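sanity check this chain:
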Amino acid sequence: MASGFKSPQKKIKSSKALSIGSASLLTEKIGRIFSEVEDPRVERTRVHLLTDILIIAILSVIAGAKGWEDMENYGESKYEWLSQFLVLPYGIPSADTFRRVFERINPKVFEQCFRCWVESIVEKTGAQVIPIDGKTIKGSYDRVLGKTALHLVTAWSSQHRLVLGQVKVADKSNEITAIPALLELLDIAGCIITIDAMGTQTAIASQIFNAKADYVLALKGNHPTLHGQVKDWFEWHLKEGFSEIIHSYDERVEKGHHRTEKRQIWCVPVSQLPPLHNRSDWAGLKCVVMVARVRHLWNRTTRELQFYITSLDCDACKVGQAIRLHWSVENGLHWTLDVTFDEDACRVRTGHAPQNLSLLRRIAINALNLEQSLKRSNRQKSNRAAMDDNYMLTILAACLSNNHNDTSKACCQ
């Protein structure tokens, strides 16, 4: 009798079994990385260890936890497993305990320890593109207290797909003040820093150039005179075919997601242009750039012109790649935070909790990106980690590998 059609059986790759001894070693490393984080609680009220609270919080967010109740639920569900390598003298901390602790942990110290951990993974960033961009956590506002939503500026490693650091934008301020503070915390020598128009400031360009790095800065209407000069010059010489003008040109066509995008890049040394407005204020400025994008979608066609200034040499291919990689911070980080971790929907808003919880999410993203054995999306990796304790340990092993710098030392000096 015919057996009918059978769908091919997929081989499910099992996670490598790691011993409880390995789990203890990994969690000890996590404890040492964040050893400089001080316990904000009064000593007589410290029922649960701060290390246990931090480790459960990190593991639960990797597994998809969105808030304090999820952290408690994860701990209760995994109690038998967690109790084999954590102390847990009074069981799993309650949701209120998680909330109170993260409301009061010093976010600057917490972020400093995070940066030291990342530095232990990426000892030298090298000549890579580092996009810097801001993101507002929309649900962190408090209308009753008159508190605006938390806005963070983040540095993203396009090569390693890791968050390198983040800085909170001060209340009643903007990214112009936060970007220099973030750059001061990072070793950017030899890197290419890309920033959107908000960060196109002479002081920021000077800071990047003096740090022995290069910049590609978007030029828009916030610099109307310079933008108008560059725009008019390119439009005129585009009609003339850049005749007798030293320049570099590159063209790329990409297809995917039911659209075709054509990008044309013209890079021209500033020596080819008439004297630019306040030219001497832009440290290291070498070239101006025009990018023309034509996108063919299924129902319409869009055209866009964008302009940039850069300290890079006149190489349209290299500059175009840096501009393209700037969007990896949107696609690789911000999109993941909103879609996988539901960051914008999170209503945590008291004390330092929004900033500290946002850092936990970025720790989780770094950990998931470092684990490469499972070729799935971060959402699927997170789901697997929630269901498979061995895979959770695999993730921890990937981001705490002995192949990286020694993370056994206290990172926050």
Summary: The longest strand covers residues 259-269. The CA atoms of residues 63 and 387 lie 8 Å apart.
